[in-house]
Design a protein that fits this description.
The chain is an alpha+beta fold. Helix content is about 40%, strand content about 15%. The chain has helices spanning about 40-45, 45-55, 65-80, 90-100, 105-115, 125-140, 145-155, 160-170, 180-190, 190-205, 215-220, 225-230, 235-250, 255-275, 300-310, 445; strands at about 25, 35, 60, 320-325, 330-335, 345-350, 365-375, 380-385, 395, 405-415, 415-420, 425-430, 455-460, 465. Helix 3 (about 65-80) crosses helix 4. The longest helix is centred in the middle third of the chain and has 23 residues, at about 255-275. The radius of gyration is 30 Å and the shape is elongated.
Length: about 475
């Protein structure tokens, strides 16, 4: 009967390769051997215990792992520590811990991944890809989901970087391993518009009206239709319409392509019908005056629908501050940008505090939020919040602005946040206390309090409609 010794424990690494105690040989890739003690190894690993005690094996093949990883694994069994664990041998050590069921070592590997591998020195694509690939392979080969979860939780992406990373990560889409597709879906999380855009771009240049490659089929089957439709309805519909066009125009498409597209569209319709039964519209856009639920924010007929909206909304003066009065304590302003707007179109909101009640008495009695269209084709919009960020545009960016030509915006200031939505997609939810730039630590004090009024300003000569109570 083996003594009841709890592992990990320090048995002394000086006993590795002992001619007296080393009754088991580990055979490495290049013909080298490491002599280890069967009791020490068995105390740590029930798998090795079974191989040596029940199957009476005296030699174990380790040529599936690098020599560095085997050396680290053995020393860990003898010392209860992971001093030799490093980024280059991590995957093999983690795999050995999994294969030989060394539970405590598996936990050490998870901790090392979190504290060392997810610590990026330069925040470069290569560093992030390295960490992502480790997580992806561990999930696919070892069924270890925790590494992908850690990657998604601890790697933070700004507006542009997640899109850029996933585009590079899925480059050469037809040849990427399927596990990369699954990992990309996890990284994208709710931002499935990024995946949809990658798929549309790939099909636009690679589909030959005959068949989909295996990766396209896999992605269409894995894509969470409900989440995509709910979070990015307009871009989801762009993908649905694109696939529908393939189905209608490609007479030579094989049965598998037709079946996959039909199934994808059917899943969309099933979810839409379910939402309708539950009392919600597919787009779930807020009812605004004169803008009925039937209005399609995809806008195939921009001119007619623009004329309809103009009948109940009004065009503000250009380059003039105009006072509007939303009701406190929630200060909310709605406006619509219409059709092709070009670039460098600016919009400003000046939140005025009552005289004598400014949160910063030594400064002006108001604060400005500004936003600007940097690129209409890609729907890139920048912003600034005076007192919270640099007071310049093209520095901070709104997040995932829908590419619809007609955009319904709502800007809302509360005591704690400035929130911006576009076609019911939240593109900014700025917490004054935590989201400020370096050097603006007092921003939460700058923006608290009720406003006496809000002023609106724009460089739009046309193609912008404002909904507000004008004084």
């Amino acid at each position: 009967m083996k003594p009841r010794i709890r592992v990990p424990a320090n048995f002394g690494k000086e006993h590795i390769n002992s001619p007296v105690h080393g009754n088991i040989k580990l055979k490495l890739k290049d013909g080298q051997e490491i002599k280890v003690n069967s009791i020490i190894m068995s105390l740590n690993s029930p798998v090795i215990d079974n191989l040596t005690s029940n199957l009476t094996q005296s030699t174990l093949e380790m040529d599936d792992f690098t020599n560095s990883a085997v050396d680290c694994f053995v020393e860990s069994m003898y010392t209860g520590d992971v001093e030799k664990l490093e980024k280059l041998n991590f995957e093999d050590v983690n795999k050995m811990a999994h294969v030989f069921k060394v539970g405590w070592l598996s936990k050490k590997c998870v901790l090392f991944y979190k504290t060392d591998i997810l610590k990026f020195e330069n925040n470069s694509y290569r560093e992030i890809e390295f960490a992502c690939e480790i997580a992806s392979r561990a999930h696919f080969h070892l069924k270890q989901k925790q590494f992908v979860s850690l990657f998604v939780k601890h790697v933070t992406f700004d507006l542009v970087s997640k899109n850029t990373f996933l585009q590079r990560y899925l480059a050469g889409f037809a040849k990427v391993p399927r596990r990369r597709i699954d990992t990309s879906l996890a990284v994208a999380s709710k931002d499935l518009n990024i995946i949809g855009n990658c798929l549309t771009a790939y099909l636009s240049s690679n589909f030959e009206c005959a068949k989909f490659d295996e990766n396209v089929l896999h992605l269409l089957q894995k894509l969470d239709v409900g989440k995509f439709r709910q979070t990015y309805p307009s871009q989801f519909m762009e993908l649905v319409n694109f696939l529908s066009e393939i189905l209608e125009e490609s007479e030579s498409a094989c049965d598998e392509v037709k079946s996959t597209i039909t199934s994808f569209i059917k899943r969309r319709r099933t979810i839409a019908e379910k939402d309708t039964r539950n009392g919600t519209s597919e787009m779930e856009l807020e009812d605004i005056e004169g803008l009925e639920d039937s209005v399609d924010f995809g806008y195939k007929n921009v001119q007619s629908q623009t004329a309809y909206v103009k009948s109940v909304w009004r065009q503000p003066p250009i380059c003039q501050w105009e006072v509007i009065q939303p009701s406190p304590p929630i200060h909310s302003v709605q406006f619509i940008t219409l059709g092709e707007t070009g670039q460098q179109r600016r919009i400003g909101l000046y939140f005025r505090f009552p005289a004598g009640k400014s949160p910063s008495p030594n400064e002006a009695y108001g604060r400005t939020f500004g936003m600007q269209c940097e690129n209409n084709d890609t729907s890139v919009w920048s912003y600034y919040i005076y007192g919270c960020t640099k007071a310049q545009l093209n520095s901070q960016f709104l997040y995932n602005v829908p590419r619809d030509k007609v955009k319904h915006w709502t800007v809302t200031k509360t005591f704690t946040h400035l929130n911006v939505t576009c076609n019911d997609v939240t593109v900014l939810n700025f917490n004054f206390a935590t989201d400020h730039s370096t050097g603006f630590e007092n921003s939460s004090q700058v923006w608290v309090g009720n406003c006496s009024s809000v002023l609106f300003w724009t460089t739009y000569a046309e193609n912008l409609l404002l909904k507000s109570q004008v004084t």
